[in-house]
Amino acid sequence: xxxxxxxxxxxxxxxxxxxxxxVVYDLTSKNIAKFEKNILKGISINxxxxxxxxxxxxxxxxxxxxxxxxxxxxxxxxIFYKDKKLVAVYPDLKKRVExxxxxxxxxxxMCKAAMKRNKLMPKDIVKFVKxxxxxxxxxxxxxxxxxxxxxxKD
Length: 154
What we know:
Helix content is 45%, strand content 19%. It contains 4 helices and 5 strands; from the N terminus they run αβαβαββαβ. Strand 1, helix 2 (32-52) and strand 2 (56-63) form a beta-alpha-beta unit. Helix 2 (32-52) packs parallel to helix 3 (84-104). The radius of gyration is 18 Å and the shape is globular.
């Protein structure tokens, strides 16, 4: 009897893992509309789809290239302050990004290697973003954890 219970427990655990889907977005775009469509709206739509089917979607976003601009604490204190369109919408974008983290458990990973090129220090980045040595390492790690790869480029 113990063997049957153990087998059923292990089978249930194995089936539960099948209900977890994983995706890593390779975010390099600086395009606001593309960022909104693919990250802010796309993730919430995809999460709702899986939850509606009683499944889970784990999401990670690896940030590099032009995408640093969407994850700074104060846009006015960065090299991105010249982008007037971004400055105008940044307060709303910042709230929506934070909502992705707090409401959808999105893991944000930022390439530390190119921060200097963007004149950014860790203190300039929103608190929930984790720094990884470089974007390649972040993408390799997530893909080795079974995450599907989706590029978001300009």
